[in-house]
Design goal:
The structure is a homodimer. By secondary structure, chain A is of the alpha+beta class. Chain A folds into two domains: about 110 residues, PurM-like, N-terminal domain (60s Ribosomal Protein L30, Chain: A), CATH 3.30.1330; about 170 residues, PurM-like C-terminal domain (Phosphoribosyl-aminoimidazole Synthetase, Chain A, domain 2, Alpha-Beta Complex). Chain A has nine helices and 14 strands. In chain A, the strands form three sheets. Chain A has a seven-stranded mixed sheet with strand order 9-11-8-12-10-13-14. In chain A, helix 4 links the parallel strand 5 and strand 6. The first copy, chain A, is globular, with a radius of gyration of 19 Å. The relative contact order of chain A is 0.18. Chains A and B meet through helix 1, strand 1, strand 2, strand 5 and helix 4 of A and helix 1, strand 1, strand 2, strand 5 and helix 4 of B.
Amino acid sequence: MKAFADGDRILLSHGGGGLLSRELVERLFLPRLANPALAALDDAGVVALGEQRLALTTDAFVVAPPFFPGGDIGRLAVAGTVNDLAAQGARPLGLTVAFILEEGYPLADLARVTDSLAACAREAGVSVVAGDTKVVPRGQADGIFVSAAGVGLIPAGRCPTGAGARPGDRVIVSGPLGEHGLAVMLGRQGIAFAGEIRSDVAPLNALVEAAYAACADPGAIHAMRDPTRGGLAAALNEIAAASGCAIAVDEAATPVSPEVRAACDVLGLDPLHLANEGKMVFVVAAETTDAVLAALRAHERGRLAAVIGRVTDGAPRVTVRTELGTERLLDVPVGEQLPRIC
Amino acid sequence: MKAFADGDRILLSHGGGGLLSRELVERLFLPRLANPALAALDDAGVVALGEQRLALTTDAFVVAPPFFPGGDIGRLAVAGTVNDLAAQGARPLGLTVAFILEEGYPLADLARVTDSLAACAREAGVSVVAGDTKVVPRGQADGIFVSAAGVGLIPAGRCPTGAGARPGDRVIVSGPLGEHGLAVMLGRQGIAFAGEIRSDVAPLNALVEAAYAACADPGAIHAMRDPTRGGLAAALNEIAAASGCAIAVDEAATPVSPEVRAACDVLGLDPLHLANEGKMVFVVAAETTDAVLAALRAHERGRLAAVIGRVTDGAPRVTVRTELGTERLLDVPVGEQLPRIC
């Protein structure tokens, strides 16, 4: 097991969802907490209960500012948790929420966050059944942090996993990319662009149910990921690595709104690296692609869904065929685009 | 629903487990998140899964210092979560852990916390199946915060709830009180007492199983609480309020170690208000008391278990018959003895 020297410190990038996040998980957490559910490195861990399978997930949310265009930390906590369960094919059974508050935090803001969190839970059809509140003295936390966890039931036959992609599979994304990351970034820095960019934060369990309803065999959905920190790039690289396949993305087919594209051009950002909080990536058997795509497009949260690429033989890596016809490697973000994006 | 004025702010006492914590839950959270599982205000929420019942719980841990005599924030996170499940009669199925780290936090300390957390999970026979790490810039959090959540299965026939106490029931505590709160307090302030006081932090699921094994009818355990923030006083007042009964405690029968008693005398503290992290309070049917007590005493974590009181008719309140023979009201702590005790 790796030992750490006195000088080794946590960097912002350790929380960024990119290369250093992965290193932290692989070198520090996995060897110590060794168990197969965690080692699968999926969005949720799976535990058996008799013949049934439960998915269990958690995320801490530290987004700054806690209220941003299109959402807030409460909606984010619920949607993020529901989406991690959905990415495992699970229907949510119950959620928990734990607040860490800084002394002096306005009660009206806490009420607003709680209202938003409750509304999102109703939208997803799930309840917050347990909670906790801790308060730390002024200056020892920044306003409000929210940790959420959830448990869900995985219906029989569903077995999506990051390791499930196979050559020939198609990659579908449920809608335009980059909105959450950009909305938080612009909201924080007070930059105004023509055409407001709002976070896409939304629960996707109903969308995932619609996708499954379109599959004669639920096993045809091989992998799902909600592309949060690190964006589509991180999600696809995780799938490629876990599956031992290459993934080829067609940039021209990848949905990005004109507003996000314009802002990315100005700021020098890649929309495929930006966080999403209301999009799902599906890796599906080729013959099921049309049915899943049609089902997604028929759902309000998937109207702009698109087939953006395919899984191929070859060393695990993700390539993008650009709109100019050239090919580039889509790497995991190495550094931190912006801390506290979710 | 209560609206909050601009000037209303979070106080340290809102996180203290006492009166203001309760107000926050009742006025802000419950009306907004309204659902029966949460409204029960037990240590874990209960959700149905077909014929089965799952318990779901979460806690955020912000203890300072994160390493204290007898334990650390990692052991605390696992034990606290397992004990909340155990207080609902549930056997743990899986845990999740989310870290919020301050930029610059030593990786060696994170590894030490993770080792301790993993060891405690092994001790409790449960796995950490999902996790998350967020990093905030220097100065925006104090070192390390850990949120944990857990799901457990409640075997048929078990139905402990804070509202379950009935006149005639006996109150059992599984061992001496006040050790965790005092160990953290002294550890933080660098006060040395003769005879080191160490936190009792430990998972109690095996102890609770032993208690159930001693009951012919699992329904004979009417209520359980792990008396953490706010100590025995908060736990018993919660049970009295939820059950609509009075509880009479016999101070002479209440186990407190000589070291804790001496330190409390010097510092002017009431051991019944101090946090515990390895003790369970049982409210049991009178005729089952001896069997449960014997089972607890036969277990390494319950050797000093004692019957400390009984449930009586009357308005919900907790009274203590002192060793001098007088009677005093055991109130919920109003203020905050010390922030960041767990």
